[in-house]
Amino acid sequence: MSRTTSLRPRTVVIGLLVLVLVMLATVLVGASDLGWRRVLAEIAAQLTGGTSPLSEREAAIVWQLRVPRVLLAGLVGAALASSGAAFQGVFRNPLADPYLLGAAAGAGMAATIVVVLAPATTDWIVGPLPIAAFAGALLGVGLSWLLGRSSGGTGTATLLLAGVAVAAFLTAVQTFVQQLNTETIRQVYTWMLGGLNVSGWREVLLALPYVATAAVVLCLCARLLDVLTLGDAEASSLGVRPGRVRLLLLAAASLATAAAVAVSGLIGFVGIVVPHLVRLLAGASYRVIVPLSLIGGAVFLIVADHIASTVLPGELPLGVVTAFAGAPFFLLILRTTRTRMP
């Protein structure tokens, strides 16, 4: 396949069309059997001002449960996939994922603290757990960055090692806090397996501004990711400051990851699988990979969440479904790629 360096409008249109069709299909068919024709008639009635065939309760299932859940799945998938593409480009490693710099460990620690120590609250505008997870994810990335800078290293390898150290420390803190109240372990692990079963419009509005901001930054900087693949010396000769570019990209990717973790828990493999599929199908340029990963990640996670909510009478954790799809793909990548990306 020839190396595609520009994003064709036709490709974006096809991707967006697939996304819209997948979103519509998952809204029409859900765990509650409302009849897809009746749901379609309800959507048409809302758009045209006609008469709805659904009862008030059935309409609430569509607009208060299905629609926000589909939108949130799309936001989380887009955030994780585009962040994965950015991390792979910055670290020039095909196995890099959005949780690389301690975002998952920080979010897990903060969420555990809230579950174990915070009193139950029902009158908050936004629940304390997503706020804590968001702050914890940013804390983990921030500590990794500070540790990497203070160690005297300037390369991505130093930052990566700092992320490993910070993640290990934060995971130890999380384990210690869990032992303070072992009755909450099940609730903590349920959150860590990921899921959107309690999502609504509040979570969509919480994640949207952060994911949108990060997506704009990543798309605008996609060309700079291509420049970074040439090496720091070549990038500097072209007028690019590699250190500043990496900092901006990592900040944007970490912000998107933190927002995704806050509303969905920890969902693995999206940031590895989707960018690689895009690379195989559409080309190796990050001007192609980043925007198509946004679309592909949304499609991937919407489908995965629909499977998680409908395949069994009881709902599967979303992280389990993505692991079933992602783990074999991860092993394939491990066998067929080198540590360094071309």
Automatic annotation (TrEMBL):
**Main subcellular location of this protein, as a coarse class:** membrane
Which Gene Ontology MF annotations are present? transmembrane transporter activity
Q: What is the membrane topology listed in the Swiss-Prot or TrEMBL record?
A: Multi-pass membrane protein
InterPro entries of this UniProt entry?
A: ABC_BtuC-like (IPR037294), ABC_transptr_permease_BtuC (IPR000522)
Any GO BP annotation: siderophore-iron import into cell
Gene Ontology CC: one annotated term: plasma membrane
Asked if the record carries the keyword Secreted, the reply is: no
Pfam families found in the cross-reference section: FecCD
Q: Kindly give the Gene3D superfamilies that the UniProt entry links to this protein.
A: ABC transporter involved in vitamin B12 uptake, BtuC
Q: Does the keyword Cell membrane apply?
A: yes
Domain of life from the UniProt record: Bacteria
Q: Where are the transmembrane segments?
A: 12-31, 70-87, 99-118, 124-147, 159-177, 247-272, 284-304, 316-334
Q: What are the subcellular locations of this protein?
A: Cell membrane
Q: Which UniProt keywords apply?
A: Cell membrane, Membrane, Transmembrane, Transmembrane helix, Transport
PANTHER family linked = ABC TRANSPORTER PERMEASE PROTEIN MJ0876-RELATED, FERRIC ENTEROBACTIN TRANSPORT SYSTEM PERMEASE PROTEIN
* Family per record: Belongs to the binding-protein-dependent transport system permease family. FecCD subfamily.
The name this protein carries in UniProt is: Iron complex transport system permease protein
